[in-house]
TrEMBL record:
Record protein name field: Undecaprenyl-diphosphatase
Organism the protein comes from: Cecembia rubra
Pfam families: PAP2
Stored SMART domains: acidPPc
Membrane-spanning intervals of the chain: 34-52, 58-77, 135-155, 161-179
SUPFAM superfamilies to which the protein is assigned, alphabetical: Acid phosphatase/Vanadium-dependent haloperoxidase
InterPro entries the record matches: PAP2/HPO, PAP2/HPO_sf
Keywords: Membrane, Transmembrane, Transmembrane helix
Keyword Zinc: no
């Protein structure tokens, strides 16, 4: 069963990785980096502070926990445990993979930390501000595009992305609810007579 799933994952990767061109290669390579998205992250910080004001500390800490959980689970735990080679490191796929730029940050790719971090950001922002800014749900489309760059560049299988997205979602859920409980405890200590 697992062999069949791995084969389907590999076949889907080869199909999705085949859509490339000299024009899009440098664009995808740029989009997969962190620095082009820094203005977006600054804008999100502004949204959090402008809405939560003095209470923004707990949301910012929830974001920090989300990224910590997402990144460490994918890179610190899953990659060394599963030891699944990235497509661009897989000898059986030599000559079949379109790899542009470099072959990722290490030999192993399961799960994708790009996917875990981006889906973590999309989820935590939706949890924290989605009620006020419904358009933030479009961040999941950004997370899909950001994650797809990893398949396009030949450094992740679709299964790596799906697992990473799940890790990101769970990390955001945990980070948000942990910090919400911390905030409630702080609020109870600070204002014991208020409900």
């Amino acid at each position: 069963m697992m062999d069949k799933i791995a084969q389907l994952d590999q076949d889907l990767f080869l199909f999705l990785n085949s859509f490339h061109s000299d024009f899009f290669d440098p664009i995808m390579f740029t989009l997969t980096k962190t620095w082009p998205w820094v203005p977006m992250y600054i804008f999100f910080t502004y949204l959090i502070i402008s809405h939560y004001k003095k209470e923004s500390w707990w949301v910012l800490m929830a974001v920090g926990l989300t990224i910590l959980f997402a990144d460490q689970t994918a890179s610190g735990l899953m990659k060394p445990y599963f030891e699944r080679l990235r497509p661009c490191h897989e000898p059986l796929l030599e000559g079949l993979v379109h790899n542009f730029g470099y072959c990722g940050g290490g030999k192993f790719g399961f799960a994708s930390s790009h996917a875990s971090n981006s889906f973590g950001v999309a989820t935590i922002m939706t949890l924290a501000l989605g009620f006020r800014h419904p358009w933030l749900k479009w961040l999941f489309a950004w997370a899909v595009v950001f994650s797809y760059t990893r398949i396009y560049l030949g450094v992740h299988y679709p299964g790596d992305i799906i697992a990473g997205a799940l890790v990101g979602f769970l990390s955001a859920w945990a980070g948000y609810h942990i910090m919400k409980k911390v905030r409630d405890k702080v609020y109870q200590v600070k204002y014991p007579n208020k409900q």
